[in-house]
Amino acid sequence: MARVVVEVMLKPEILDPQGQAIARKLPQMGFEGVTAVRQGKRFEIELAGPADEAAVERIRELAGTLLANPVIEDFEVRVD
Amino acid sequence: MSGTDNVALAHRTPEQPQPYKELGMNDEEYQKVRDILGRRPTASELAIYSVMWSEHCSYKSSKIYLRQFGEKAPKTDKLLVGMGENAGVVDVGQGWAVTFKVESHNHPSFVEPYQGAATGVGGIVRDIISMGARPVAVMDSLRFGAADAPDTRRVLPGVVSGIGGYGNCLGLPNIGGETVFDPCYQDNPLVNALCIGVLRHEDIHKASASGTGNKVVLYGSYTGPDGIGGASVLASASFDEESQAKRPSVQVGDPFMEKLLIECSLELFQSGLVEGIQDLGAAGVSCATTELAAGGSGGMAVELDRVPLRDPNLLPEEILMSESQERMMAVVTPENVERFMAVCARYEVPATVIGEVTDTGRLVMTWHGEVIVDIPPRTAAHDGPVYERPVAVPADQARLQADTPGRLARPSNRDELRKTVLWLAGSPNLASKEWITSQYDRYVLGNTVLAQPENAGVVRLDDETGLGVALALDGNGRYTRLDPYAGAQLALSEAYRNVAATGAQPLAVTNCLNFGSPEDPGVMWQFSQATAGLADACLALGIPVTGGNVSFYNQTGSTPINPTPVIGVLGVHADVRRRTAMAFAAEGHKLVLLGTTREEFGGSEWAHVMYGHLGGLPPRVDLPAEAALGSVLITAAQEGLVSGAHDLSDGGLSQALVEASLRGGLGVRVALQEDPFTELFSESVARAVVAVRPEAEARFVDICGQAGVPLTTIGVVGGDAFTLDGVFSIPLSELREAHTGTIPGLMA
């Protein structure tokens, strides 16, 4: 049993309205000193077998196909 | 080279090579810029000219044809603001005016369907805001590749949820449109979005920057690297294998910011704080500054480094080309700036003074003190290149027209006729689009009177009087491929008929002309024919074109799409309580077919569905008959003579009866005199089927006689089946299954 984590973020140049909305609210709630917020997604994937190179490669394929929209998002895959 | 390219440097380094070709300019255009400026352009000036002179912004290939919409315009006193402004404004009576426009977002929707379609809605809504009107409804006309093609399952759901996501968040009802499938749109879907806005006559505003010393304010979202080069690269160039690499940053829409912009802008108008205004669409700041300056007293000074940025590393030329969404530019008198800023602050809309109006006749931009742009604004905004491109009848046109559907085997017995009704009702183009339209808010704001799948969308404008407008959006690429002159007229004809079928008086026209590459003489011939056909038909029907949009380069490789002019017709209801719905819902009411049915199957849905055949000639255009039919439908609605009316178009009488029956939940019993195949499936124009109220039969026959509209009583409403006497009987449940199962099945 192994766990692989996939983190998906909008590419840096892509507008993130949700992150902006959060950033805008922070000063009103008394949290100073934050200049920007960007919001992403995290997936935790449980594998039946070991997280070897082949398995991670499969997860990369899966992430690029289903979890992320590669046109506007980047993703990172790592073994937890 | 380090540092920013500026005018002084441009004088010193006249020979420096510039990437004008990569920006989509040819040698002559680049030379013209050098001639205008008397030197090489700076990088920022090159950015401005390249986007402003792109096909998308300059209409350089279409301009000579679009002029006829003005030249041939019918005399009307209904047009308060004509073409040339962002969108035309039409008088709908009682002191109310309406502005409406349709625009394409085809290429962005192929690259990123959700955001492409969403920002398409956002863009057309800002067009309406910039006229000082409150947006009240949207519509969309969509075309995809074959319904069962794998990529359609990527593009269609993305486009639909993008339109729904943006429009629903804005709180605007989506009141109709069309969805069509054809393999020719496989790698080039068409996403045409329409918005309609309402204002009082006294609130009409025009974009200009008059008044030396007035301030130029940029308000709305910050500027980021969104769609840089999009206007000239994304929107104009065709897709090829390299489109992966060419993808610039996809523009992401923020409908909540757009909602704030709507409310903020309307309050700014109401408070009299705006001298001139321009929405930022394709070509962003380049377009807004050059157009505002060119439309006003002719000069403007802009400190480009004051534009608030989302990404601090943006270069000035990138700022000029950025297509970041949800931005507007206003011209404000100095004494009003403070109040302007206060209104923006209340809506949490960022606003920044970036420059002022001057009397120099030049648009001058500085970047941290250095002059990086110094141009006559008209040369970028209005005096771009105009091309009279070569025109030639496509090589296969004669062969296509000669290949008539007469050779196709027709249903030869009762069972085949029955099956044909069901096949057509369940074919992707004619099947229920509820899977799509149910993802849109259709009744938000509480003024929607009719929405999809009705003949046309109808919204109420005035609660007390019931004043309202009807809108229909139609196109037919197959007809237009067979005969572009007639095809454009047939699209207008159908939209006119749809609006009249609800009982509304058609008033004005907008259009979105989707074609292949203008560099292909065959495509340019199609364009010249279609525009001439549309202008002539608008004159004949007495309804002017108030504005529109041209989208070229809709093709993959060298294969252009079927030429697809999408035509929107706006009509007015003096009182929407007097509209006619499409449902046949009153047992015993007589069914009357209006108009003349000829044997016309060229480009028909039948030939398409059964044989994938496209050939022959489209149905004959008959505008006088269309106008006469319209007058009957309008009078019938006003006098309450009919309980339901449905226009006949794709799929003919059969499809109209199927749709009206399913809508009302009651069957029809029909008897046809001659050749049932032709009567059921022909697509002859200027026809409708109505259910006449028993007490109004004599009066109805009377008005048809006066208008010269042939009428045939074909049956009666009732039962729970579509019955053709002596031929077949199809239970409504079977029809419903065929009609509603197709799209969900394809998208599952």
What does this structure look like?
With about 80 residues, chain A is an alpha+beta fold. Chain A has a single domain (about 1-80), classed as 2-Layer Sandwich (Mth169, Chain: A). Chain A has 2 helices and 3 strands; from the N terminus they run βαβαβ. Chain A has a 3-stranded antiparallel sheet with strand order 2-1-3, with helices on one face. By secondary structure, chain B is an alpha+beta fold. Chain B is built from 27 helices and 28 strands. A 7-stranded mixed sheet of chain B has the order 8-10-7-11-9-12-13. A 7-stranded mixed sheet of chain B has the order 23-25-22-26-24-27-28, with helices on both faces. A 6-stranded mixed sheet of chain B has the order 1-2-3-6-4-5. In chain B, helix 11 runs antiparallel to helix 14, helix 20 packs parallel to helix 21 (about 520-540) and helix 20 runs parallel beside helix 23 (about 625-640). The N and C termini of chain B lie far apart (about 55 Å). At the A-B interface, helix 1 of A face loops of B.
CATH architecture of chain A: 2-Layer Sandwich
Helix content of chain B: 25-40%
Strand % of chain B is 15-25%
Give the termini separation of chain A.
11 Å
Structural class of chain B: alpha+beta
CATH H-level superfamily of chain A: Phosphoribosylformylglycinamidine synthase subunit PurS
Task: Please give the order of strands in the largest beta sheet of chain B.
Answer: 8-10-7-11-9-12-13
What is the C-alpha radius of gyration of chain A, as a whole number of Å? 16 Å
Number of separate structural domains of chain A: 1
Write down the Rg of chain B: 26 Å
Mean pLDDT of chain A: 93
N-C termini distance of chain B: 55 Å
Order of strands across the main sheet of chain A = 2-1-3
Rounded mean pLDDT score of chain B = 92
According to DSSP, the number of beta strands of chain A is 3
Shape of chain A: elongated
Oligomer: heterodimer
Number of helices of chain B: 27
SS elements, strand count of chain B: 28
Count of helical regions of chain A: 2
